[in-house]
Amino acid sequence: MTHPDARETKQLQRRSFIGAAVALVRNTWRKLTSMRTALVLLFLLALAAVPGALLPQRNLNVGKVSAYIAARPTLGGWMDKIELFDVFSSSWFTAIYVLLFVSLIGCLIPRLAEHLRALRSTPVRAPRNLSRLPHHHAAELSADSTAAVERIRAALPRWRLAVRTADDGATELSAEKGYLREAGNLLFHFSLLGLLVAIAVGKLFGYEGSVIVIADGGPGFCNTSPAVYDSFKTGNATDGTGLEPFCIRVNDFTADYLDNGQASMFTSNISYQEGATDDGQWNSYQLKVNSPLRIGGERVYLTGHGYAPQFTVTFPDGQSRTESLQFRPDDATTFLSSGALRFDPPGGTYSSAEERRNNQIAVEGLFAPTAAFNGTLLTSAFPDMRDPAVAIDIYKGDTGLDTGIPQSIFSLNTEMINQGRLTKQARVNLRPGESSILPDGTRVTFDGAKEFANLQVSHDPAQVWVLVFAITMITGLITSLVIKRRRIWVRITSKTTDLGQVSLIELGGLARTDHAGWGAEFDTVHRRIWQTEGPARREERHGDQ
What we know:
The chain has 545 residues and is an alpha+beta fold. The chain has twelve helices and 25 strands. It has helices spanning 4-32, 35-48, 50-54, 62-71, 73-81, 91-120, 145-155, 179-205, 353-357, 414-418, 463-482, 518-529, and strands spanning 135-141, 160-165, 171-177, 207-214, 221-222, 231-234, 246-250, 254-257, 263-274, 283-288, 293-295, 298-314, 320-324, 328-329, 337-343, 360-368, 371-374, 377-380, 389-397, 422-430, 435-437, 443-459, 486-497, 500-511, 539-543. The strands form five sheets. Strands 4, 6, 11, 12, 13, 21 and 22 form a seven-stranded antiparallel beta sheet that branches. A hairpin with a 5-residue loop joins strand 8 (254-257) and strand 9 (263-274). Helix 6 (91-120) runs antiparallel to helix 8 and helix 8 packs antiparallel against helix 11 (463-482). It is elongated, with a radius of gyration of 39 Å.
């Protein structure tokens, strides 16, 4: 049998443990929901976003992430483990984001309740000794207490007023203004909370796709499936189905450059068709940087450009194939670009499928929009297409077109070259119109180049709310900075003299915020009260000027 003292000891220990746990939870909650913690978390959120801006992110460019890790195997591996290449979807960034939400909600709701109570309450009673306040003024007024109160009301037109009778019979008046300051402060913080929620909703239910379209008025693309995009990413709450139907053709592209080669403006004339695509009605629009096309809930941005060299391969029997394909800009300043093209012989050129496969042509090399040669080495001197040229290797053999294996559009499969399935036939530099003839009589001609536009289609269902909350944030911030909290107390003591009723008025003022300029405001108030009064019988004042 358990001794009673032992049971009591266990109960006391259990209660002590529960009390300590409750105290720990309570103190943790108070610290988490303090404004200081919210500010620290907001700073940490901004700090945590820095790696996302400086390092390549996997959801934007997997190739750059792989290249970064390959160049720094040890450091890159550790950075990948702590999710520095997936910053905005990482566990630690999400934790900061959620804690900031909780902290903001926990500290704003009590502040809102307190502000509502302050709006319903009357201004506080006057202190006993008004002369001890930072600003004080006293003078006699030839009027009774009722007239004095009305004069003071007229001098404080937009102040909240409360009139009371003190224990000694004097009339006290409490006045306060600046309640909108806290309202603006709350509006700012609730708008910040709403902005964060709107951004999160947009990321959950939105999507974003990028596609390269050659600017020659060709077929363009239709927003019918994620498969039409070169890269497509969706939020966790959407799967990319139910896209807004529209089609876009890029008719031309123009880039304006400064003398140093820096781009100043991109412009593209496009045609688009909304909804059903069989009515033949196309609309025109001039697409510019930061001037997107808006179709329903979609936005189409012009995010970049490049060049698509065009080659014509004429096979020994006279049949030819012409193809243009985008090259990847390797130098963002001069647009020296690299890429590869593959050509399958037309039907009937060779007697069997195997012979046809072994006589495919591949072109791999560099494109320069404004050519500059150092001997036979090609580079580019300017990003605009003034004197285009290519430096290419021409291969013959099995390019892997019919293997069903995905291949890069910017380079050939080195494994096929190493295995001898693709053999190099020539290395040449070509300008538009120039050709290279292979030993079997195949002619490879460089026809020139076309420009391509990189388009980004974005859908963000919360974009309007982001704008609304941004505007209300600015409104709340301006309100909290402009409005100032002020308090004034007045004590009126009336007496009867040979000349009639005389009231001694004591005026005291206190600035709850922003003490600068309060002295001049206080002087303005007491001048309003006595502005129609003749010479005062007795006047005394003090305060910080």
